[in-house]
Amino acid sequence: MTLAELQTAVDTWIREHGGYWGKFEILARLLSHEDILAAIAYGAEAGRERIIPVPTERVALGSSSMEISGGAARSCCGTQGTTFSGSSSK
């Protein structure tokens, strides 16, 4: 029996006894119940929105104080400073 004939015989037997499994069926057979729950929990945590609190009162930074309002920092001299954002990165 040649390799090609053997492959054909095995393929025929597999198809007669239920066929090939899909890629997700194979993965489900390899993973335990705990593995699946851990993957779901990880995905839920990774997709969770992060909220970063931004103070709205006067904050002393070094030798000068800055007032934080409207999402931007303004120094005591009135020039525009660093912008603080409460948005999250996903």
Topology:
Layout: H1 3-16, H2 23-30, H3 33-46, E1 58-61, E2 64-69, E3 72-75, E4 80-83
Antiparallel strand pairs: 1-2, 2-3, 3-4
Question: Could you give a short description of this structure?
Answer:
With 90 residues, the chain is of the alpha+beta class. The chain has helices at 3-16, 23-30, 33-46; strands at residues 58-61, 64-69, 72-75, 80-83.
What does this protein look like?
The chain is of the alpha+beta class. It folds into 2 domains: 44 residues, no CATH class; 31 residues, no CATH class. 40% of the residues lie in helices and 20% in strands. It is built from 3 helices and 4 strands, in the order αααββββ. The two termini are 57 Å apart. The relative contact order is 0.09. About 6% of the residues have low confidence.
Which terms would index this structure?
90 residues; alpha+beta; 2 domains; 4-stranded antiparallel sheet; 40% helix
Count up the helices.
3
Question: Which segments are poorly predicted (pLDDT under 50) over 5 or more consecutive residues?
Answer: 78-82
What's the alpha carbon Rg, rounded to whole Å?
30 Å
Report strand order across the widest sheet: 1-2-3-4
**Helical content band:** 40-55%
Q: Can you summarize the main beta sheet?
A: 4 strands, antiparallel
Global outline = rod-shaped
